[in-house]
Amino acid sequence: MANWYREVFRRDDPELRAEVGRLVSAARRAPPALEPGAVVEYVRQGELRCGVVRKPPRGRAVDILGPDGGELSVRRDKIAHVSGEHIATGRRGDFLRELARVDGRRDGASRSLDMTTLWEVASEGVDADRDWELDELAALYFGRAPDPAERVALLRALWRGEWFERRGQAWHPMAPARVADRRQERERRRRGAHQRDTLSAWLRRVVDDGPLEPRPPGADEAVALLEQAALYGSEAESAAAAGQLMRGAHLHGPVAALEVLVKLGHWDADENLELRRSGAPLTFAAAAAEAAASAELGQAAWPAAARRSRRVWLGRPVALADADGGCLLAASARRWPGGFLVTVHVPALALLAPPGSQVDEEARTRGVSLRLPDRYLPLVPEPLLAMASLSPQAVVPCVSAEVLLGRDLEVRRCRLRRRRVRVRGVWRDSDGPAAAGTGAGFSGGAGRGAGLLLDLARGLRQRRLDRGAVIFPPRPRPVAEGGAHLLPPPGPVAAAAEEFSLLASHAFALVCRQRGVAAVYRVQPAPRAAVPGGRVLDPVGAHLQARALPRTTFEVGGGKAPPPGSWTGVGLDLSVPGARPADSYLDLVMQRQLLAGLDRAAGMGKEQLRRTVEDTAAAREAAAQIGRAARRYWLLKVLEERGDGPLPALVLERAGLGYVVEVEGLGLRDYVPVRGELAAQPGDRIEVEVEQVSARRDQLRLAPAGSGAGPA
Q: How confident is the model over 638-649, as pLDDT tens digits?
């Protein structure tokens, strides 16, 4: 087809031919030379960037070296400007410095342009609604044809989108209202950048051990950003703002953010980050704390309970301190024709936290108590725990399970009672004599019956083992009092407290089943791997069973329906919470159910119990994760403070090109890569050395001591 302008050129009109010739020449103007080394402006993610052509283009794409020296492929239509400037792309350092110089010069030139006046002129009169080409705006601004540097400076100023909006290859003046909004936004960004620079300088001063005061405006917001960076790193919601603040202070990474928070006195050096991430409340709400501390609460709760319960006079029980030193369970035992009569007393903490109260709401939110190496976060405020603690100086209302055991320690009969209990003494493993299995040495007659109670506890434990219970070997416990160190594993008194607590939970389940009371049952299917019967697992067996043992769940049952299942891993056919109301909201709720049953009052229905289980599930999961992380952190702290030298370790399994081992004396498990033949077998002992350990970074790298990888 003939070109449209051929007929025009045949006409006898010199002026028309000249104008058409100009247009055709402009259309046929040779495109800018995209040759290697040419400096270009290209569009990347909606922004105009400066780069250099790396090699002659092929097809529709051009290879560009960006401002960071990285190579990328850019479509031709994304190249907004090609200048006559060239940069050699040989040595990387020289290239980056020269490109940065060109980019800085262009940016400075673009910001020196008076775009406000250009916008006012372009948006006035008959030209207010027209679109402008770049060259037209350049001629309007400079009053002449601009040179390449002026043209690219104007292009950059237009691309900032503060006065003109882009329409294809043309530019259109913005409405005055939009320009005003952009001006306000620009001013807001300017003030924000100034404040960020001020805060970054303050943080840098803190890092360099300078004075903390005076704090600049916005310091609290800066601390909040550092918290997010320390907890979540690049995945924080405010990662971009935190990153800008930290880069300005020459800080990099979550650990750097934590160190600044420590220097500010906002956190301590051993801050539990997993606890912070969980959002678990660290303090009680003011209303709950005031209610717990008020004398009226105790006067209203205990006397009412005392009027409905009988005082224990004969066979006064003893309180059994658990592994953490708490005295929230008491027991007594005596021989009975054909067996033993065991009574387990659990303080009626539910009387101090009635449904709907401030304390109840706090306990529901927390879900469980948290006993960590460096702190204790109770389920209910400390004043209530003090009121419910068993001691020879106080009479405490309790829910008491009277259990008749046969000589084989099977439950023959059980019943629940309200009782007021004053214990005759407190047993603790730290007292020493109880650890030997005798009661000698306990003051105030507390040792009487110690032998029988401890023997029954050992018998109940063995009975559970014979029924398939999976009992893991005790491990040392890290604590943070006076620095990281280890406490010995729980002794026989703590083990007895656990056994009688399990016996009480079993008795509670039997009573709920007999009376058709709606209850929450602990359910755990049988392990997927065979369990050695009749003994506590060794570390190797425990390691294997930890993966084969199904998780314990909570199922609601009651009425005429059969119980939902057994707690197989613990060796109990029935178990409901209720024996540890100070540690779990489900235990607190089930204690209310038991008290309602004793009073022949209506308790919670199945649907209410299901909602309670669901509402506290997240808190239970978080608590388990927090506990694991805290234990590992403080074990690594213990390892950090130990001197150099080989450590004994037990091989738990062979995995890949190494072993999974447990460092003996710590109970800390990790992987040890081995170069060469794997000579050790599970159960063998080897020596390992620590190549790297950091509690804060959760890093541990072990290696076989010397060159040996076989049994020690």
A: 998 887 789 999
